[in-house]
Inverse folding.
């Protein structure tokens, strides 16, 4: 075989590999999955079924997920550098504006201190004019508690602390509403 034929075959094989990777990424990135029930935890005499964690709010105060018990929670993991996260933010802001009194929106920024800082995340949210509250996972404990491997990732938790469903990848307004409908008692 000539050098040119070998080169063409190598390019075709590489293109096929890239196309396969793109198809696999798209298939996995936009899937909704049911989360298995996690072990119940007791917090102050009440049972919380989901994994619990503590993050900080914009004033640096600790906020515990189990402290939200009693209301449904939309828990979203994101970062300002993440294009799919940025894509879905307007839908979350709209839903928060409409349902913020009925549902708690925990928009948890994965703050690693290098690529993402409290300042960059805060500037992004302010710059876009979003009204939902943001929380900072500066130690990675929230991401660890929920096994976050890819962002954005959203969990829908009912008022009793049970994870009803989750979604990995950017959410459309319809997908967000379907998740919300599943936790509204």
């Amino acid at each position: 075989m000539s050098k040119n034929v070998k080169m063409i075959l190598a390019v075709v094989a590489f293109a096929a590999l890239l196309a396969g990777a793109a198809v696999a990424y798209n298939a996995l990135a936009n899937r909704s999955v049911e989360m298995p029930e996690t072990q119940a935890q007791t917090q102050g005499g009440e049972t919380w079924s989901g994994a619990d964690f503590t993050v900080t709010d914009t004033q640096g105060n600790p906020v515990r997920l189990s402290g939200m018990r009693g209301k449904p929670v939309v828990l979203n993991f994101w970062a300002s550098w993440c294009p799919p996260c940025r894509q879905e933010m307007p839908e979350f802001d709209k839903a928060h504006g409409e349902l913020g009194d009925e549902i708690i929106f925990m928009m948890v920024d994965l703050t690693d201190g290098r690529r993402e800082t409290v300042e960059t995340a805060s500037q992004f949210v302010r710059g876009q004019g979003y009204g939902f509250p943001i929380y900072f996972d500066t130690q990675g404990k929230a991401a660890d508690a929920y096994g976050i491997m890819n962002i954005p990732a959203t969990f829908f938790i009912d008022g009793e602390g049970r994870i009803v469903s989750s979604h990995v990848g950017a959410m459309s307004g319809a997908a967000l509403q379907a998740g919300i409908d599943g936790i509204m008692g």
User: Anything to note?
Assistant: The chain has two domains: 1-30, 34-183. Residues 1-30 form one domain. The radius of gyration is 20 Å.
